[in-house]
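Batch manifest, entry 17 of 40.
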Amino acid sequence: MSVCPNCGTNLEEGAKFCASCGYEMSPRSNNQESDQEYYTNDNAIEPEIVGSPANIVKDRMVAGIFAILLGTFGIHKFYLNDMGMGVLYLLFSWTGIPSLVGLIEGILYLTATDEEFQEKYVK
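Output type: structure tokens
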């Protein structure tokens, strides 16, 4: 078992990256002193920050096109993370009502500004 020279976390044998800090392990990772001597934090990989739902940004053009072309099946609702409405559109797709509502929603999406779209429709 080896230790990450960047953060000190115990690593599995043969690990190429530290799971905690993303530090790229060198082939000489068994010798910690030499790793610290030759490798600095410059080659560490930044951990991916997963955004909260408030930080999610959806493209209104994509949503509008989905609503107009695939509104019958509620694809635009699934794209906007409104799963309940997406399933409802899918269940009633045989009636034709979701295609009419999808067309109207697509026009509303495309005529809204980006800020309005994000506030009103992105969940």
